[in-house]
Specification:
Layout lengths: L12 E7 L13 E6 L2 E7 L9 E3 L4 E4 L1 E6 L1 H6 L4 E2 L6 H9 L9 E6 L10 H8 L4 E5 L4 E4 L1 H7 L8 E3 L1 H11 L3 H17 L2 E6 L5 H10 L6 E6 L4 H6 L14 E9 L29 H13 L4 E5 L2 H14 L3 E5 L2 E2 L1 H10 L2 E4 L1 H6 L1 H7 L6 E2 L3 H5 L4 E3 L10 H10 L16 H7 L19 E4 L8 H5 L3 E6 L2 E5 L1
Parallel strand pairs: 1-4, 1-5, 6-12, 7-8, 8-9, 12-13, 13-14, 14-15, 15-16, 16-18, 18-20
Antiparallel strand pairs: 1-2, 2-3, 5-21, 9-10, 10-11, 17-19, 21-22, 22-23
Helix pairs in contact: 2-3, 9-10, 10-11
């Protein structure tokens, strides 16, 4: 690539690059082309060298050009803060996790914070006493990988003003409140960590995210823009607690906070049930061991209808968290009654009769393919009695639904290539394939990783905004390991480099 170009440079010509995509109509086949840009828009595509290369030339070196990639579900601040928290993903028991927290660093606020444990299949159960013995009087917080539960020692429970329950485990709304408090660090530190994290995302080919942090994100992103943030496009969500303020301030989905349109108002995010890992996803059949336990529907359908009605009247799209099949049915019923527009987030267990409703209602399925492999043992153990379809992907695509990929970072790493590989191959590291019937083809996975999702395709055409990525291999032909190892050599937003290898 041209030595004169670096991050922040505007590109006029992407030279010697190859196109890919199953929905292409261009005549170039496997041949190298030059992509000419003007004012951040694709102005022409021609055989390599056929037109004069004027202006700033980015030599792609024979790499492949794909549309800019999006992660449609990120908890941005919490994801950025993972770098300061003790990893617990390798812990295989409560005792193991308690021992790990004994060595966790004490942060400047006096807390020990760990993250990423998965306790659903542990042989023992978390308890306050077990954690107290390991961590003493220093407040200790262990955040479940799914963020729907938090395990605290006595010192932490006292500090946060919660009762000293024997388990020490807080779930759902209480767990979210603890996460909000842990995420409430100084704006300067938070913004620095977010910028560092989103620079890494740009290096993976990400040009945009949907930020679903539980905060008043309009203020947060206005502050970051004022400080010069320009790494990715952002659509930020709001939550029911801020709905009145959102309406009063006249914020409408799609409205931009800045003249360049880099950061825009996104959806109203509503969490209607729990999670599989915390065993609170609302399901039609009980969880093993307790015939009365079917999870929790935290927002009843009537209340959800009211929220969607108010949001739609105010010009807001809606993103409804629904994991269990009862929650998905409730969400689809509410979309039906209100005519709201938006997505269902996660859609991890869906009744067969509900699959076609996504397309019929125009409701996007915002899903996280890496979760399917993370949860495969949980699905087989905890959802064995369910009659709905777990982790549907191919079924949704075949029904005509728009599928949008994301990570739910920090629940899974923000890595679009890993998400694509999991969706296409349904395995990791050439291991056993899980539910191969729900795999999708690589072209669908690539399209689902772009701004408008699977229904929009992934072809690159003249007249489009130049949100583009040069990648070192063709994602449509790469095998599983190669797709996970894909590397973006250049990432551009409207022709401006946000990453260059």
């Amino acid at each position: 690539m041209s030595a004169a170009l670096d991050r922040g440079s505007s590109v006029d010509v992407i030279a010697d690059v190859r196109l890919t995509g199953a929905d292409r109509l261009d005549p170039f086949g496997d041949g190298a082309v030059d992509v000419h840009l003007r004012d951040g828009v694709i102005a022409d595509i021609a055989p390599a060298g056929a037109l004069p290369r004027t202006g700033a030339v980015l030599d792609a070196g024979g790499g492949w050009l794909v549309p800019g990639l999006w992660d449609h579900h990120v908890h941005t601040a919490q994801w950025a803060l993972v770098a300061r928290r003790h990893p617990l993903g390798s812990c295989r028991s409560a005792a193991d996790a308690a021992r790990a927290m004994r060595d966790a660093p004490v942060l400047e606020d006096g807390r020990r914070v760990g993250t990423g444990f998965r306790d659903a299949l542990w042989p023992d159960e978390p308890s306050r006493d077990l954690l107290d013995r390991a961590t003493g009087d220093t407040p200790a917080y262990l955040i479940n990988a799914d963020v729907h539960s938090v395990w605290l020692n006595s010192a932490a429970l006292r500090r946060e003003g919660f009762p000293l329950e024997d388990s020490g485990v807080l779930r759902e709304a209480s767990a979210f409140e603890i996460s909000r408090r842990l995420n409430d660090i100084t704006p300067a530190t938070a913004d620095r960590l977010v910028s560092e994290a989103l620079q890494r995302a740009a290096e993976a080919g990400i040009v945009g995210i949907v930020d679903l942090d539980m905060a008043w994100n309009a203020e947060v992103w206005s502050r970051r823009l004022s400080a010069g943030f320009d790494l990715t496009r952002v659509r930020f969500g709001t939550y029911p607690a801020f709905l009145d303020r959102t309406v009063q301030e006249g914020l409408v989905s799609g409205d931009a906070l800045d003249p360049a349109g880099l950061v825009r108002v996104g959806p109203l995010k509503i969490i209607t049930d729990g999670s599989l890992g915390t065993r609170t996803a609302a399901c039609s059949h009980p969880y093993p061991g307790d015939p009365a336990d079917r999870g929790v529907l935290t927002v009843p359908t009537g209340e959800l209808v009211d929220l969607l009605t108010r949001a739609t009247a105010a010009g807001l799209e809606c993103a409804v968290h629904a994991i269990g099949d009862l929650a998905n049915t409730s969400a689809l019923d509410a979309f039906t009654v209100t005519g709201a527009r938006g997505t269902i987030e996660h859609a991890q267990l869906v009744a067969h009769a509900d699959i076609a409703r996504f397309a019929r209602l125009g409701v996007g399925a915002s899903v996280q393919p890496e979760h399917a492999l993370d949860d495969r043992e949980l699905v087989d153990a905890l959802w064995a009695a369910q009659t709905a379809l777990p982790y549907p992907l191919r079924a949704l695509v075949d029904a005509g639904a728009t599928v949008l990929f994301g990570s739910d970072a920090p629940v899974a790493p923000l890595d679009p290539w890993a998400a694509m590989a999991s969706a296409v191959f349904r395995r990791r590291d050439d291991g056993a394939v899980w539910r191969a019937d729900q795999a999708v083809d690589a072209a669908t996975a690539l399209a689902a990783s772009t701004a408008e999702g699977s229904s929009a395709g992934s072809a690159i055409d003249v007249g489009e905004i130049a949100d583009l990525v040069v990648v070192d291999r063709d994602p449509l032909t790469a095998h599983e390991a190669a797709l996970r190892a894909a590397r973006a050599t250049a990432t551009m937003i409207a022709g401006r480099l946000t990453h260059r290898a």
